[in-house]
Amino acid sequence: MNVSSANVTVVIEYRDSFSKAVTKNVIVVVLSISINYINAGLIRTFRKHQIFYMNPRYILFFHLVVNDMIQVTLTVMLFIISYTIYKLNVSICCIFILLALFTTENTPLNLACMAVECYIAICVPLRHMQICTVKRTLMLIGLIWTTSMLSVLPDLFITLATEPLDFFHTRVFCLRETAFRNPHIIKKRDITYIIYLVIVWFVIFYTYFKVLFTAKTASKDAKKARNTILLHGFQVLLCMATYAEPLLKHALHLWFPKNYTDSLFVTYIIVQILPRSISPIIYGVRDKTFRRYLKRNLLCTVSSQ
Length: 305
Hints:
The chain is mainly alpha-helical. It is built from 13 helices and 2 strands, in the order αααβαααβααααααα.
């Protein structure tokens, strides 16, 4: 039995009690509603003020927030389904998993692009307006989605080519390992994750240290950019935990076989939910320009009630 099938077997064998299941679902739903409510306020602020439409930094941030809202909604739906419906039709499960994977893999790529934009703004400010245009930013977002699709869609193609048609009419516990169970997909996933890990972390480290050296002799804005990239790095670290998740789950299965579902719950919160709560802090609170317009928007909302 491989790691993936072992994980699924343990989840099936050790079901939570009713009270524990309700508690976990309430925690997940409350966290997701809170994150999406805050992010919805950020999106509303972005849409109401033209100044953000022409700034590549805020366009990338807007894309990150929308992407995170979709990702949180999808993963929470899958979490609730795993406790209520329990098993899904494979075809429907594949759609959920694909969309969740697209948005999950978009996040570290988006963060890397935002780190590069900070680097350009601080280290080559005279060329920032030429390099970071709105058109190029939109093309970059398209490239992010294309990269994620090229990484994920082969899973579907391999499954369509190797699985019998009847498989797509069966019902499974909806996980990536059960929907896309070909062993070649697992190998491809591991190689892809290693490549992602190396590239994204290289970008984060390179931009951070370049900005760090600039910040020693430059303005307060450079030091703020350095701290922003550091926060991006922490957020990427949490997102990258997704790439180590299969190994982490296997380790948890070996260490805590009887408390495996509790371990999976904590892993889910850390890997899927926590990274999506950092974006509002980076720009909704720390960024002076966005904070000013956000306060104005909140005051207008309160006064109109």
